[in-house]
Each structure stands twice: as C-alpha cells, then as structure tokens.
C-alpha cells in the first residue's frame, strides 16, 4: 500500500512540473518621433508553447529593429 501511495505521489509531482506557465511580452518601436509600446496579452501554456510565443515576439520585434522583453510568472 505504501508503494502505491508513493507511486501516485511521484506521478502527481511529475505531472505538476509540466503545469501551465504564463508570460507577458512587449516591445517598443518608434513611429515618427515618439516611441510606442506594444504589449501582448498574457500567454499561458506548457513550456514549449511559451517558447514558441516568445520566439514570435522576438521575430516581430526584430523586423521592427527593436527587442522583445518577456516576464515569466
């Protein structure tokens, strides 16, 4: 019985490590003589989905000759 409980707890712990993570990203770009900020809506998902989201932000900001900044939680 103890082995069963330990196995269930171990599987639960591993499952929770792949829980959803969230991030918010933004980039600044210049229009005319002023700087504008584009803030993406918060994105939540698994690690692979978050990395894809960050890469999309980086690609878009690079096309505008600026950088993307993200904060994870």
Percent range for helical residues? Answer: 40-55%
**Could you describe the largest sheet, including whether it forms a barrel?**
4 strands, antiparallel
SS-based class: alpha+beta
Radius of gyration from the alpha-carbon trace, in angstroms: 19 Å
Task: Report how far the terminal alpha carbons are from each other.
Answer: 37 Å
The fraction of residues in strands falls at 25-35%
Indicate the low-confidence ranges by residue numbers. none
How do the SSEs run, as a string of H and E?
A: HEEEHE
Mean pLDDT value: 84
Topology:
Layout: H1 2-17, E1 21-31, E2 34-39, E3 43-45, H2 47-63, E4 68-72
Task: Give a brief outline of the structure.
This protein is an alpha+beta fold and 73 residues long. It has two helices and four strands; from the N terminus they run αβββαβ.
Describe the protein in words.
This protein is of the alpha+beta class and 73 residues long. Strand 1 and strand 2 form a beta hairpin. It is elongated. Helices cover 45% and strands 34% of the residues. It has helices spanning 2-17, 47-63; strands spanning 21-31, 34-39, 43-45, 68-72. The longest helix is centred in the last third of the chain and has 17 residues, at 47-63. Strands 1, 2, 3 and 4 form a four-stranded antiparallel sheet that branches. The protein has two helices and four strands; from the N terminus they run αβββαβ. It has a domain at 23-73.
């Amino acid at each position: 019985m103890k082995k069963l409980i330990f196995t269930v707890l171990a599987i639960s712990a591993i499952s929770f490590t792949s829980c959803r993570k969230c991030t918010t990203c933004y980039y600044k770009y210049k229009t005319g003589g002023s700087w504008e900020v584009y803030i993406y809506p918060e994105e939540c998902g698994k690690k692979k989905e978050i990395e894809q989201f960050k890469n999309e932000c980086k690609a878009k900001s690079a096309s505008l000759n600026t950088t993307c900044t993200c904060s994870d939680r």
